Automatic annotation (TrEMBL):
It comes from the Eukaryota. This is Enhancer of rudimentary homolog. The lineage of its organism: Eukaryota, Viridiplantae, Streptophyta, Embryophyta, Tracheophyta. May have a role in the cell cycle. Keywords: Cell cycle. Belongs to the E(R) family. SUPFAM superfamilies: ERH-like.
Length: 108
């Protein structure tokens, strides 16, 4: 069975109702994809508060960011099926939560 961490993951997102804001990011694993989503949010926080040195936010702030996007979904490679499976915003939020929990507990 393939390791959960080695599943190629594509995050599809649209920042605003304008379809021209559609983009995607791809990662080697679900964990890296969650890091990427957190990084997106952190860059947005820095844009809003450029003088802030230390960023801190909680899971509710990250959820609001994800919910505030016009669209966000994930495609995760499933080795056994040799195909990408689609996952919705709720799945992304659940994965982001467990990912941040692991980081908070110090296991990278």
């Amino acid at each position: 069975m393939a390791n959960h961490n080695s599943r190629h993951t594509i995050i599809l997102l649209q920042n605003s109702p304008n379809r021209a804001t559609r983009t995607f990011m791809d990662y080697d694993s679900i964990g890296q994809a969650m890091d990427g989503i957190c990084g997106l949010y952190e860059r947005k926080l820095k844009e809003i508060n450029p003088s802030l040195r230390n960023l801190s936010y909680d899971i509710a702030d990250l959820y609001n960011f994800i919910d505030g996007l016009a669209d966000m979904s994930a495609l995760v490679y499933e080795h056994s099926m040799n195909a990408y499976l689609p996952y919705d915003r709720l799945w992304i939020k659940q994965k982001a939560f467990s990912h941040l929990k692991r980081l908070a507990n110090g296991s990278r």
